[in-house]
Amino acid sequence: MAKILVVDDAKIMRMSIKNMLHDLGHKVIGEADSGYSAIEEYKNLHPDIVTMDITMPQVNDITDGIEAVKQIMAYDKNAKIVMITSHGEQEKVIRAIQSGASNYLLKPLKLDRLKEVLDKLL
């Protein structure tokens, strides 16, 4: 069982991800609705894995999930971050992976693919 931080600006998406993670036997230890709050929650909670939406509104100087990945990786080079993205954002996914993200998932999320990605990280 992994301790997971779920980051997405859409509350319904966070709820969906949390339900899937629960079904897979993992524990959601926190949520964040922006990249800025994701960084703060990461530092406070020290999760095993972060699910991170790529496109979120700017809060303070954090413009999106990619910038949050950079900041989290600067804080903890061993962080495991799974990007969550919509179709058509391939360039952003590449930038996220180059910034340190471990893997990515496409929306709409599928339980079997989520399980596969998490199993690789654990």
Overview features:
alpha/beta, 45% helix, single chain, 5-stranded parallel β-sheet, Rossmann fold, 122 residues, globular
Q: What does this molecule look like?
A:
Helix content is about 45%, strand content about 20%. The chain is built from five helices and five strands, in the order E-H-E-H-E-H-E-H-E-H. It has helices at about 10-25, 35-45, 65-75, 90-100, 110-120, and strands spanning about 5, 25-30, 50-55, 80-85, 105. It has a five-stranded parallel sheet with strand order 2-1-3-4-5, with helices on both faces.
What's the topology here?
Elements: E1 3-7, H1 11-23, E2 27-32, H2 35-45, E3 49-53, H3 65-75, E4 81-85, H4 90-98, E5 103-106, H5 111-121
Parallel strand pairs: 1-2, 1-3, 3-4, 4-5
Helix pairs in contact: 2-3
| Through-space gap between termini | 9 Å
CATH third-level topology: Rossmann fold
Low-confidence stretches: none
- How much helix, percentage-wise, in residues? 40-55%
Shape category: globular
CATH architecture: 3-Layer(aba) Sandwich
Kindly name the structural category: alpha/beta
The strand order across the widest sheet is 2-1-3-4-5
Structure summary, number of beta strands: 5
Tally of domains = 1
Mean pLDDT: 95
Q: Taking Cα atoms only, what radius of gyration do you get, to the nearest Å? A: 13 Å
Give helix and strand order, one letter per element, not per position: EHEHEHEHEH
Separate helix tally: 5
% residues in beta strands: 15-25%
CATH-assigned homologous superfamily: Response regulator
The major β-sheet equals: 5 strands, parallel
Q: Specify the CATH class.
A: Alpha Beta
